[in-house]
């Protein structure tokens, strides 16, 4: 298997006349927590939708978890987990019932045992009998992660995972993401606007501007390369400003 969990070659997406992604070539090594940054409309959700096989590119290729998104989409789906920005559940069912439904849908072996294992890992045991409609945003996000990892994916995609969370929720999510990476060995790909969180959570970043990848490096190298800037937020704004005419 390749050293890369994700690699794209000249990935392009057009929505009619709108060019959302412009020949994007990007590689994320196995074991990274990769944060994709970019202004509103930069193309972040489009990339995630293509890499998770929800959307077809106009041209170009991508390999995720060792499988080509064009020729082996089913294998890609078995290899990845995905937490969308607004995760959907059956709100009148309990957490346990929801997870059992999704576990059966994705053919998880011994689903009851696996659900217990996942909830234990996420520090979420004891909520199985609670109706999802009563969950806070933070609890829904944790339930969304439980659902996304039931089938033991090797690559996990998170779209704006901290959106709408309070500081405690953000801190708990950070702890979970780092544990998934360090204890279970998952490669994580996340879209985010919360730059302070990226410094604490991610090992590498990419910056997307109007469909073009304008920067990619490790967080440590990025912070070292811009000693005059106080924070990753300042570095991001500095790099983005360099793109403007
Ligand atoms: N279905 C669509 N039809 C037409 N244009 C679209 C469609 N989906 C996205 N776009 C456009 O493509 C560009 C990239 O959109 P995308 O949602 O990928 O950006 P984003 O970086 O995720 O933005 P945000 O941070 O606001 O979520 C934007 O200009 C958007 O308006």
UniProtKB/TrEMBL annotation:
Sorted UniProt keywords: ATP-binding, Nucleotide-binding, Transport
UniProt keyword Flavoprotein present: no
Keyword Phosphoprotein (UniProt): no
A family per Pfam: ABC_tran
Residue ranges annotated for the ABC transporter domain, each copy included: 6-235
Gene3D superfamilies recorded: P-loop containing nucleotide triphosphate hydrolases
InterPro entries according to UniProt: AAA+_ATPase, ABC_transporter-like_ATP-bd, ABC_transporter-like_CS, P-loop_NTPase
Signal peptide region: none
Family, similarity comment: Belongs to the ABC transporter superfamily.
Protein name, as recorded: ABC transporter ATP-binding protein
Provenance organism: Arthrobacter glacialis
